[in-house]
Amino acid sequence: MVARPTADPGVTAKPAGRSRSSIPCPAAKANGETTGENKNLDQLDLVQEHHKLDLYISPRDCNVNWLPRQCMLYQAESTGTPQPRMKATIFLALASASVSCVSALSSKISLDYATYEGTPGSDGITRFLGMQYAAPPVGDLRWKAPQDPAQATAVQSAAKFKDVCIGVKQTVGTGPVGGFNYGEDCLYISVITPSSATNTSHLPVLFHIPGGGFAQLADPNLDFTDFVKTSGNNIVAVQINYRVGALGFLAGEEVRSGGALNAGLLDQRKALQWVRKYISQFGGDPNRVTIFGGSAGAGSVGLQMTAYGGRDDGLFAGAYADAPAYSEVNSDSYSQFQFNKFATITGCGSVADKLSCLRQADIANIQKANVVGNYTDIPAQFTFNPVIDGTFVQDIPLRLFQTGHYVNVPMIVGDATDEGTLFAANAGSPEEVSEFIQANVPSLTEANLTTINQFYPLMAAQQPFHKAFFPSAAAAFGEATFICPGLTISSAVGASNQVWNYRFDQSSLALRLAGYGVLHAFDTGAIFGPNAGPMAGLLGIVENGLVFSSFAKENANVVPIMMNYAISFVRTQDPNTYKSVFAPNWQTYNNNGGKQRIVVRNSGVIYEDVPAAQQTRCAFWTEIIANSFAE
């Protein structure tokens, strides 16, 4: 474990320029954030002869939209000082005082390889969408570590999202939801920032890693406008694309020796390095980045924390893992089987240099092999996953957490109550439960399967449109893949840092009627709001894929609770600083030596201890997932 102090939000560099005097606004903080009405008046350039003059600054002019658009000073009226106002003694030039502020964010940002033109919105948000953070990973760059983008002389438009990285069972072209396209040239990054920000604002940064089982990007191109505005325009939001499916996680000795294993994780790292280098030009603070992800995105959060054995490269100061997804890591032999079959399907199986052949193959041909069903005869959920490469991923991820090999930052970990219903087989018997679970956890023995059937017997609560043992299969998969890894990580990190854990227990009418309960990733709509956008990975399941819609109506009560906890954590690495007035103070997971989490519902937030029976089941799953390989 690498000890890492929380970034000090009170330290920031002063802008360059002549000697200046500072007139702080009420409740202003040195890092450029506001607390509703807090911005620093910075500064007055002084020229020629100076004379002393008393001026007053009204707190109402110190709101988030005020600086740097205008520098307005209010002179005291002869009849008295208006209240509430703050008196400040300053020096002004008698002849030609030059009043200046740090200039507002330009819609054109010049980086050292390209200039991008974003779109300032009438809502006070400027959007820079689809900026290249790495070279297109095509041709000879397939299955290689991401490379720096080429120099661009012309101004590049950042007005719309670019292609989403193509995944399993997808074809090049328009995607089913959201109007985005799938493609291989996809290593793009987007930044949503307050128009009032400057390159000295030093605002905290949300860095969003999409989920999708490492097979697809299920939640790309989310709209973080509500999240940023609810923060009082005190957050810069970043989201990325990264390679998934076979293009991101094909393994085998050929890839190890002639390319890069875990290319998708290296893409994420490249994007984090991009943020470290450039985010200040968009108003963000590179020392105050919170990495956030759901599902495989949450698994990626953990993989970035444990990267290089937990080496701290200073890329993030906090971590938020929503349903961290971890399954058995593929063994070297199974990875080689995948590679050989992938090469055969694409027509490269009999070629001496298979990897070179694959790099020359047409993307449509590649996608014929980029299908889970090609590699298993029983319904496994995920095929192309991160593997141990000895460098970036040095061991099984959960074991790295258990042995202290992670970057030690504050963390939020959470899950939905019914994590497994989206994935489970419609099992009608204990034998079908066993078949489904073993397809996803291949190392299970007959004794393990017997234990699983005892842990998850026929359940009294049945789900509409499903067979009798569907709830059992769903509960087993949900705990094995999401809930138990989350609790394991909470215990590991919570032993030396602050960790907050939650169970999201609010569903929608549509989900309940469809038999899914509190669906996997459903809480994303509560965190980012009903306008965040569709989740393509859930298309055809409920609500035409627009799973966030209920948070505008029936589930509206949970939005301020979840969103403000998250906003507060991004801003201060503590969910309580700016929490909703309707939410209780959130105690840490290991508070008073226990394992305590909050349960979030429309009716409010309650505390619960993790049940002893669930702890027993999780000890069983963690022993398997943290110590065995998929063969």
Automatic annotation (TrEMBL):
Transmembrane segments: none annotated. Residues 121-593 form the Carboxylesterase type B domain. InterPro entries: AB_hydrolase_fold, CarbesteraseB, Carboxylesterase_B_AS, Carboxylesterase_B_CS, Type-B_Carboxylest/Lipase. Belongs to the type-B carboxylesterase/lipase family. Its EC number is 3.1.1.-. Residues 1-39 are annotated as: Disordered. Keywords: Hydrolase. This is Carboxylic ester hydrolase. Pfam families: COesterase. Coiled coil: none annotated. GO terms for molecular function: hydrolase activity. It is an enzyme of class 3 (hydrolase). The lineage of its organism: Eukaryota, Fungi, Dikarya, Ascomycota, Pezizomycotina. The keyword Transferase does not apply. The keyword Hydrolase applies.
